[in-house]
Amino acid sequence: MEKYLKRIGFEGEAKADLPTLTQLQYRHFLSVPYENLDILRGVPLSLDVRDLYEKIVVRGRGGYCFELNALFNWLLCEIGFKTTSYISRFLLDEPEIPMRRHRVMRVDIGGESYIADVGVGCIVPERPLRLAENEETEVENEVYTLKKDPFLGWVLNYKKNEEWRPLYSFTEEEQLEVDFVQPNFYCQYHPDSIFNKQNMIAVRKEGGKYTLDGNIFKTFTGKAVTVKELSEGEIPGALKEYFGIILN
Asked: Which domains does the chain possess?
Protein backbone atom coordinates (compact mmCIF):
# COMPACT_ATOMS: atom_id res chain seq x y z
CA MET A 1 0.00 0.00 0.00
CA GLU A 2 2.78 2.46 0.85
CA LYS A 3 4.30 2.12 -2.62
CA TYR A 4 0.92 2.84 -4.16
CA LEU A 5 0.54 5.99 -2.04
CA LYS A 6 4.02 7.08 -3.09
CA ARG A 7 3.20 6.33 -6.75
CA ILE A 8 0.34 8.84 -6.68
CA GLY A 9 2.14 11.40 -4.51
CA PHE A 10 -0.21 11.15 -1.53
CA GLU A 11 0.88 13.29 1.40
CA GLY A 12 0.02 12.85 5.07
CA GLU A 13 -1.67 10.04 6.97
CA ALA A 14 -4.15 7.95 5.01
CA LYS A 15 -7.37 7.69 7.03
CA ALA A 16 -10.88 6.63 6.11
CA ASP A 17 -12.21 10.18 5.89
CA LEU A 18 -13.33 12.59 3.18
CA PRO A 19 -10.10 14.68 3.02
CA THR A 20 -8.11 11.49 2.41
CA LEU A 21 -10.51 10.23 -0.26
CA THR A 22 -10.47 13.63 -1.95
CA GLN A 23 -6.67 13.79 -2.07
CA LEU A 24 -6.37 10.15 -3.17
CA GLN A 25 -8.71 10.65 -6.13
CA TYR A 26 -7.16 13.93 -7.21
CA ARG A 27 -3.56 12.73 -6.89
CA HIS A 28 -4.45 9.55 -8.79
CA PHE A 29 -5.69 11.57 -11.77
CA LEU A 30 -2.47 13.60 -11.75
CA SER A 31 -0.20 10.57 -11.52
CA VAL A 32 -1.67 7.48 -13.20
CA PRO A 33 -2.60 7.75 -16.88
CA TYR A 34 -5.74 6.40 -18.41
CA GLU A 35 -4.51 4.22 -21.29
CA ASN A 36 -5.45 1.26 -23.47
CA LEU A 37 -2.01 0.37 -24.85
CA ASP A 38 -2.03 -3.25 -23.70
CA ILE A 39 -5.36 -3.81 -25.45
CA LEU A 40 -3.91 -2.43 -28.68
CA ARG A 41 -0.77 -4.59 -28.31
CA GLY A 42 -2.82 -7.73 -27.72
CA VAL A 43 -1.64 -8.16 -24.13
CA PRO A 44 -4.44 -9.90 -22.15
CA LEU A 45 -5.65 -7.78 -19.24
CA SER A 46 -5.76 -9.29 -15.77
CA LEU A 47 -8.04 -7.82 -13.12
CA ASP A 48 -6.26 -9.68 -10.34
CA VAL A 49 -5.10 -7.08 -7.82
CA ARG A 50 -1.59 -8.56 -7.69
CA ASP A 51 -1.20 -8.18 -11.45
CA LEU A 52 -2.67 -4.67 -11.40
CA TYR A 53 -0.32 -3.64 -8.59
CA GLU A 54 2.65 -4.93 -10.59
CA LYS A 55 1.55 -3.09 -13.72
CA ILE A 56 0.44 0.23 -12.26
CA VAL A 57 2.53 0.64 -9.13
CA VAL A 58 5.73 -1.31 -9.79
CA ARG A 59 6.06 -0.71 -13.56
CA GLY A 60 4.53 2.75 -13.53
CA ARG A 61 1.89 2.07 -16.15
CA GLY A 62 -1.75 3.13 -16.30
CA GLY A 63 -4.87 1.34 -17.46
CA TYR A 64 -8.54 1.82 -18.20
CA CYS A 65 -11.59 1.79 -15.92
CA PHE A 66 -11.75 -1.89 -15.03
CA GLU A 67 -8.06 -1.85 -14.13
CA LEU A 68 -7.73 1.56 -12.48
CA ASN A 69 -10.89 1.37 -10.40
CA ALA A 70 -10.24 -2.23 -9.34
CA LEU A 71 -6.86 -1.28 -7.89
CA PHE A 72 -8.15 2.01 -6.45
CA ASN A 73 -10.99 0.12 -4.76
CA TRP A 74 -8.43 -2.24 -3.24
CA LEU A 75 -6.44 0.73 -1.93
CA LEU A 76 -9.53 2.27 -0.35
CA CYS A 77 -10.41 -1.00 1.37
CA GLU A 78 -6.83 -1.37 2.65
CA ILE A 79 -7.05 2.09 4.21
CA GLY A 80 -10.37 1.19 5.87
CA PHE A 81 -13.02 2.74 3.64
CA LYS A 82 -16.35 0.96 3.14
CA THR A 83 -16.92 0.67 -0.61
CA THR A 84 -19.57 -0.74 -2.93
CA SER A 85 -18.84 -1.29 -6.62
CA TYR A 86 -21.36 -0.59 -9.38
CA ILE A 87 -21.29 -1.10 -13.14
CA SER A 88 -22.45 1.81 -15.25
CA ARG A 89 -23.48 2.87 -18.74
CA PHE A 90 -21.19 5.47 -20.30
CA LEU A 91 -23.61 7.89 -21.93
CA LEU A 92 -21.36 10.65 -23.24
CA ASP A 93 -21.97 11.21 -26.97
CA GLU A 94 -24.01 8.02 -27.26
CA PRO A 95 -27.11 8.30 -29.52
CA GLU A 96 -28.76 5.29 -27.83
CA ILE A 97 -28.58 3.69 -24.39
CA PRO A 98 -25.33 1.67 -24.36
CA MET A 99 -24.38 -1.52 -22.56
CA ARG A 100 -22.90 -1.41 -19.07
CA ARG A 101 -19.12 -1.21 -19.44
CA HIS A 102 -17.77 1.14 -16.77
CA ARG A 103 -16.92 0.60 -13.09
CA VAL A 104 -17.57 3.14 -10.33
CA MET A 105 -17.47 2.94 -6.53
CA ARG A 106 -19.71 4.24 -3.77
CA VAL A 107 -17.75 5.13 -0.64
CA ASP A 108 -19.60 5.53 2.67
CA ILE A 109 -18.12 8.01 5.15
CA GLY A 110 -19.77 9.20 8.34
CA GLY A 111 -23.34 8.58 7.22
CA GLU A 112 -22.83 10.10 3.76
CA SER A 113 -22.17 8.35 0.44
CA TYR A 114 -19.81 9.54 -2.28
CA ILE A 115 -19.06 8.41 -5.83
CA ALA A 116 -15.36 7.76 -6.47
CA ASP A 117 -13.98 7.10 -9.94
CA VAL A 118 -10.40 7.29 -11.28
CA GLY A 119 -11.07 5.31 -14.45
CA VAL A 120 -12.07 7.84 -17.10
CA GLY A 121 -9.86 9.89 -19.39
CA CYS A 122 -12.39 12.54 -20.36
CA ILE A 123 -14.43 15.12 -18.46
CA VAL A 124 -15.30 13.53 -15.11
CA PRO A 125 -14.93 14.89 -11.56
CA GLU A 126 -11.38 14.80 -10.24
CA ARG A 127 -12.77 14.65 -6.70
CA PRO A 128 -15.51 12.51 -5.10
CA LEU A 129 -19.12 13.67 -5.43
CA ARG A 130 -21.70 13.32 -2.69
CA LEU A 131 -24.42 10.91 -3.77
CA ALA A 132 -27.28 13.39 -3.58
CA GLU A 133 -29.90 14.27 -6.16
CA ASN A 134 -29.70 17.64 -7.96
CA GLU A 135 -26.81 18.92 -5.86
CA GLU A 136 -24.50 21.03 -8.05
CA THR A 137 -20.78 20.71 -7.38
CA GLU A 138 -18.00 22.67 -9.05
CA VAL A 139 -14.74 20.76 -9.53
CA GLU A 140 -11.80 22.32 -11.36
CA ASN A 141 -14.02 24.82 -13.22
CA GLU A 142 -16.54 22.16 -14.25
CA VAL A 143 -20.01 21.83 -12.71
CA TYR A 144 -21.55 18.41 -12.03
CA THR A 145 -24.80 17.07 -10.68
CA LEU A 146 -26.40 13.68 -10.08
CA LYS A 147 -29.98 13.24 -11.26
CA LYS A 148 -32.36 10.28 -11.00
CA ASP A 149 -33.90 8.57 -14.01
CA PRO A 150 -36.64 5.89 -13.71
CA PHE A 151 -34.73 3.49 -15.97
CA LEU A 152 -31.06 4.52 -15.82
CA GLY A 153 -30.97 5.15 -12.08
CA TRP A 154 -28.39 7.72 -11.02
CA VAL A 155 -27.12 9.85 -13.91
CA LEU A 156 -23.96 11.92 -13.60
CA ASN A 157 -24.25 15.12 -15.63
CA TYR A 158 -21.93 18.00 -16.39
CA LYS A 159 -22.82 21.50 -17.54
CA LYS A 160 -21.79 22.66 -21.01
CA ASN A 161 -23.05 25.89 -22.57
CA GLU A 162 -25.58 26.18 -19.74
CA GLU A 163 -27.06 22.76 -20.56
CA TRP A 164 -26.76 19.54 -18.57
CA ARG A 165 -25.21 16.67 -20.52
CA PRO A 166 -25.08 13.07 -19.27
CA LEU A 167 -21.74 11.37 -18.60
CA TYR A 168 -22.71 7.98 -17.18
CA SER A 169 -25.45 6.25 -15.23
CA PHE A 170 -25.61 3.46 -12.68
CA THR A 171 -28.10 1.58 -10.56
CA GLU A 172 -27.40 0.41 -7.04
CA GLU A 173 -26.92 -3.34 -7.49
CA GLU A 174 -23.64 -4.26 -5.82
CA GLN A 175 -21.14 -5.92 -8.15
CA LEU A 176 -18.55 -8.54 -7.23
CA GLU A 177 -15.10 -8.65 -8.78
CA VAL A 178 -16.18 -11.54 -10.99
CA ASP A 179 -18.95 -9.38 -12.48
CA PHE A 180 -16.38 -7.22 -14.25
CA VAL A 181 -14.67 -10.11 -16.06
CA GLN A 182 -17.19 -10.34 -18.91
CA PRO A 183 -17.44 -6.61 -19.78
CA ASN A 184 -13.66 -6.36 -19.50
CA PHE A 185 -13.34 -9.18 -22.04
CA TYR A 186 -15.83 -7.43 -24.35
CA CYS A 187 -13.87 -4.17 -24.20
CA GLN A 188 -10.65 -5.97 -25.11
CA TYR A 189 -11.82 -8.17 -27.96
CA HIS A 190 -15.26 -7.33 -29.37
CA PRO A 191 -15.19 -5.73 -32.85
CA ASP A 192 -17.63 -3.04 -31.67
CA SER A 193 -15.47 -2.01 -28.72
CA ILE A 194 -13.99 1.49 -28.88
CA PHE A 195 -10.97 0.42 -26.85
CA ASN A 196 -9.21 -1.78 -29.44
CA LYS A 197 -9.15 0.74 -32.30
CA GLN A 198 -6.57 3.44 -31.48
CA ASN A 199 -4.62 5.10 -28.67
CA MET A 200 -6.86 6.45 -25.90
CA ILE A 201 -4.53 8.07 -23.38
CA ALA A 202 -5.03 10.87 -20.88
CA VAL A 203 -3.52 12.22 -17.69
CA ARG A 204 -4.50 15.29 -15.69
CA LYS A 205 -2.15 18.08 -14.74
CA GLU A 206 -2.67 21.07 -12.48
CA GLY A 207 -5.20 23.19 -14.33
CA GLY A 208 -5.52 20.94 -17.36
CA LYS A 209 -4.58 17.64 -18.96
CA TYR A 210 -2.73 15.85 -21.76
CA THR A 211 -4.44 13.48 -24.19
CA LEU A 212 -3.37 11.27 -27.07
CA ASP A 213 -6.17 10.02 -29.34
CA GLY A 214 -4.71 7.98 -32.16
CA ASN A 215 -1.77 10.17 -33.11
CA ILE A 216 -3.41 13.48 -32.13
CA PHE A 217 -1.74 14.95 -29.04
CA LYS A 218 -3.58 17.70 -27.15
CA THR A 219 -2.59 19.91 -24.25
CA PHE A 220 -5.44 21.46 -22.26
CA THR A 221 -4.57 24.43 -20.07
CA GLY A 222 -7.57 26.18 -18.63
CA LYS A 223 -9.82 26.79 -21.64
CA ALA A 224 -6.94 26.81 -24.12
CA VAL A 225 -6.17 23.75 -26.25
CA THR A 226 -3.11 23.08 -28.39
CA VAL A 227 -3.18 20.29 -30.95
CA LYS A 228 -0.29 18.45 -32.59
CA GLU A 229 -0.26 15.51 -34.98
CA LEU A 230 2.51 13.08 -34.04
CA SER A 231 4.42 10.82 -36.37
CA GLU A 232 4.75 7.16 -35.41
CA GLY A 233 8.33 7.82 -34.34
CA GLU A 234 7.33 10.68 -32.05
CA ILE A 235 4.75 8.72 -30.07
CA PRO A 236 7.14 6.77 -27.75
CA GLY A 237 8.82 10.02 -26.70
CA ALA A 238 5.47 11.67 -26.00
CA LEU A 239 4.32 8.66 -23.98
CA LYS A 240 7.40 8.94 -21.78
CA GLU A 241 7.51 12.73 -21.44
CA TYR A 242 3.85 13.52 -20.87
CA PHE A 243 2.32 10.31 -19.56
CA GLY A 244 5.26 8.62 -17.84
CA ILE A 245 4.73 5.46 -19.93
CA ILE A 246 7.61 3.29 -21.06
CA LEU A 247 6.54 0.19 -22.94
CA ASN A 248 8.56 -2.99 -22.51
From this structure: 2-196 (3.30.2140.20)
| Beta strands 163-170; 100-109: pairing state | unpaired
Question: How far is it, in rounded angstroms, from Cα 49 to Cα 63?
Answer: 13
Bridge partner residues of 129 (DSSP):
115
- Flag whether the pTM goes above 0.90: yes
Helices (H), 82-206: 181-189
CB-based contacts of 74: which residues, under 8 Å, 6+ apart?
49, 52, 53
Q: Which tens digit of pLDDT belongs to each residue from 71-117?
A: 999 999 999 999 999 999 999 989 999 999 999 999 999 999 999 99
Q: In terms of Cα–Cα distance, which of 121, 122, 120, 123 is closest to 105?
A: 120
Nearest to 242 by CA among 202, 215, 213: 202
Pairing outcome for strands 112-116 and 100-109? antiparallel
